[in-house]
Amino acid sequence: MFHWLEKNPFYFAAAISIVISFAGLIEIVPNFAQSGKPLVGMKPRTVLELAGKNVYMKDNCMACHSQMIRPFKSETDRYGDYSLSGEYAFDRPFLWGSKRTGPDLHRIGNYRTTDWHEAHMLNPPKIVPGSIMPAYDHQFENEADLETAYAEAVTVKNVFHTPYGPAFHRGQEAWDAHKSKVLEDAKKIAADMKDERVKAMIAEGKVPEVVALIAYMNSLK
Amino acid sequence: MQSNAALEYDYSLAKKFTFLTILFGFLGMLVGTLIAAQMAFPELNYLLGEYGTFSRLRPIHTNTVVFGFTVSGIFATWFYLGQRVLKVSMAESKFLMVLGNIQFWLYFIGALLATISLLFGVSSSKEYAQYEWPFDIVVVIIWVLWGVNMMGLIGIRREKALYISVWYYLACFLGIAMLYLFNNMAIPTYFVSGGLGSPLHSVSMYAGTNDALVQWWYGHNAVAFGFTVPIVGMIYYFLPKESGQAIYSYKLSLLSFWGLMFVYLWAGSHHLLWSTVPDWMQTMGSAFSVVLILPSWGSAINMLLTMKGEWNQLTDNPLIKFMVLASTFYMLSTIEGPIQAIRSVNAIAHFTDWIPGHVHDGVLGWVVFMIMASIFHMAPRMFKREIYSKKLMESQFWLQTTAVVLYFTSMWIAGITQGMMWRAVDEYGNLMYSFIDTVTVLHPYYAIRALSGVMYLIGFIMFAYNIYKTMTSGKELTEEPQFRTPMA
Ligand code: HEM
Q1: Which residue, among B437, B367, B444, has the nearest Cα to B41 in the 3D structure?
Q2: Residues of A in contact with B265 (CB under 8 A)
Q3: Do A130 and B439 touch (CB under 8 A)?
Q4: Which of A171, B79, B241, B380 is the most exposed place for a label (fewest CB within 10 A)?
């Protein structure tokens, strides 16, 4: 049979395709619906938090941080309750990470505050001597892309039925209407911050990346 | 496997992709060395402002070495050996030549644009799948072009039976196509939201735990079909060609090939042990990882036995050294991986530096060594000149071998230290170390790794220089060498 296959490339390719498809079908498909269920009563992220998640992705914090607390005592002592599948049900993409050069952040919102984050993001080794985390000064100057975050909320609502409720319509008008709510949220975060650049931007009705990022980190509980 | 002197093969595409292999290899390893240095000396994060932080550069390193260097190497060797084992010249089909050139330029431009997009932080964030959706589409087009080219060449072949290497290149094409398509399924937000926000942004088709499963089914098997399958395809061709020895066992080749195809894909969930993925999948991932030793070692042993009775070649032909060492490193990392996939070991190893340690004894010792060896073998045949310097090749070999050993030993120690410190408790059961203690303790190992990066990079520059000199001032050859590559 093998000799025959080796002379018939079409069937050879077909045989490879069949052999390599097995695993995915058997391992991934059966639990798909089950693994996709959210925890009861869980709310999707606000637009500001989504924008923060996008800053987290843009600056690729996953390179050094995980968001997956494993069920060991040493981990639950350090980071809090172990992670549950349902907690991630609205995360597109998942941000578990694969390397802990820095600590896990899945419950960072429980034990760090806005002002701590502000000082830390500006200069990690000043707050934690010996830290090798880079400073993210540019996040205090770059404007967060709120509109894209809103577009993301609208997309997941429409395509995946993520429960965003009756608002969150398509198009420019709907976004203009929603924007003031996002700025409200941002002001609350910025009220606990000291940086002049942040204050100036908020006063102009703009949101710096770091504010969105902190909103996101505060929501990780 | 005698060479067919009557046929003139067309190496123009092989040459072009060889240049890209060297270019992307240099860039990717330069960035690798920089990020390694940043972990030891964090001040180096601020060389390029926002664009120079470790976190922005890390995906540039991984994507440039994977999709730049390794994939170019796969294309280069395919456009060289594909013709030779199928006994047909690329020049016989104008269509295939044009297609190949479109593939080359699209690939070159696409790779540059995609790298720039990562520099700006445009990223869908899944490992080795960071490119946003427009670049994914370009990747798919390039891949299909290559597939059509390969099938086309197979279609007009003279040698009816497909040589073992062709099996592996075919599998590489099919495997990556399937994996890449499914994992990168995403919905661009701009279109669904009625034209709001960035047109480049998208959301994954899968969420949370499911997304993780699909990602690591992809991530693990991108390693399989990018770093293992085509590289095994290379060694099946280049080792017998260089040494003049026939493959030791056809049956072992069969067993290893079909075994690898069947087993590899099950093992992806070993990246998700102790996570929220259902338990039975984790168990499958662990179990299949251990089974994977068989087909992996099958190929490697087949290679080593091919050299049976000819071990003297190891001492006087540096090219054989490269290939034998590559098989040995392949054996090392394919025993190391299954060990890390055992649940209790994984509890310590996961999230630590031992994982990059494992990655790099595989890629530096196996993938890069084998691709460089292939290029050394191809160069005199493509450029009709002798290799410029055997001495340089010898020094490069020893420098890089030392570098790999330094890299993986330092990361083994770092990883295990880190894993043990995270879980260490005092007599009352309280954690003994704060997190920062487990960071500062690693400084010396990070410094050693950075040094190993510099050494490896210098070795790669020596390689590039040797190839450049071969092209421009190697002694001209009047006839194509049969087996052993001629070198001055
Ligand atoms: C000069 C040589 C190289 C150096 C110094 C180097 C350094 C590094 C560093 C520092 C990281 C990040 C590790 C971390 O986050 O802790 C990394 C990751 C990685 N590198 Fe390299 N690298 C080199 C060559 C290569 C080559 C040639 C390849 C592939 C062909 C490669 C593939 C990877 C991959 C796949 C990762 C991700 C590993 C993971 O997620 O665990 N590297 N490298």
Answers
A1: B444
A2: 20, 22-24
A3: yes
A4: A171
Element (H, E) at B188: strand B186-188
Exposure string (b/e) for B452-469, b if CB count within 10 Å is 16 or more? bbebbbbbbebbbebbeb
Q: How confident is the model at residue B280 (pLDDT cuts 50, 70, 90)?
A: confident
**pLDDT higher than 70, residue B414:** yes
Which protein residue has the closest C-alpha to ligand 1 atom 35? B62
B173 or B278: which leads in pLDDT: B173
Contact B78, B4 (CB under 8 A): no
Tell me the CA distances in angstroms from A73 to A148, A191, B321, one per residue in order.
39, 37, 48
pTM passes above 0.90: yes
Sign of the C-alpha dihedral, residues B129, B130, B131, B132? positive
Task: Among 1.10.760.10, 3.20.20.70, 3.40.50.11540, 3.40.50.300, name the CATH number for the domain at A47-219.
Answer: 1.10.760.10
Enter the tokens of residue B287: 């179990």
Cis peptide before B230 (omega within 30 of 0): no
Contacts 24+ apart (CB under 8 A), B394-398: B394/B318, B395/B462, B396/B459, B396/B462, B396/B463, B396/B466, B397/B318, B397/B321, B397/B322, B397/B325
Tally of CB atoms within 10 A around A128: 16
From the list B181, B199, B82, the residue with the least C-alpha distance to B137 is B181
- Residue A217 phi, psi dihedral angles, 5° rounding: -65, -35
Judge whether A160 and A151 are in contact, CB under 8 Å.
no
At A98, give phi and psi (nearest 5°).
-135, 5
Structure tokens at B21: 């292999």
Q: What percent of chain A has pLDDT over 90?
A: 80
Residue type, B461: I
Main-chain dihedrals φ then ψ at residue B129, nearest 5 degrees: -140, 30
* Amino acid at the residue B444: P
ipTM above 0.90, yes or no: yes
CB B255 within 8 A of CB B295: yes
CA B283 to chain centre: 27
Give the residue from chain A lying closest to B170, CA to CA: A13
Higher pLDDT, B330 or A40: B330
Residue B1: the pLDDT is: 44
Distance between CA atoms of residues A105 and B208, nearest Å? 16
- The CA A134 to ligand 1 mean position distance, Å, reads 19
pLDDT average, residue stretch A137-145: 96
Question: Which atom of ligand 1 sits closest to the CA of residue B454?
Answer: 1
> Which helix (H) or strand (E) element contains residue B186?
strand B186-188
Partners of B425 in the beta sheet? B431
**B96/B265: higher pLDDT:** B96
Task: Report which of A120, A132, A113 is spatially closest to residue B436, judged by C-alpha positions.
Answer: A132
CB within 8 Å of B76: residues ≥ 6 apart: B14, B16, B17, B18, B20, B21, B374, B375, B378
Cβ–Cβ below 8 Å for B193 and A171: yes
Q: Which two tokens stand for residue A66?
A: 């995980």
How many A from CA of B269 to the centre of ligand 1? 21
CA dist B34 → A202, B42, B46, B47, B130 (Å): 36, 11, 12, 10, 20
Nearest to B193 among A17, A131, A154 (CB): A154
Residues 6+ positions from A18 with CB-CB distance below 8 Å: none
- What residues pair up with A99 in beta bridges, in sequence order? B351
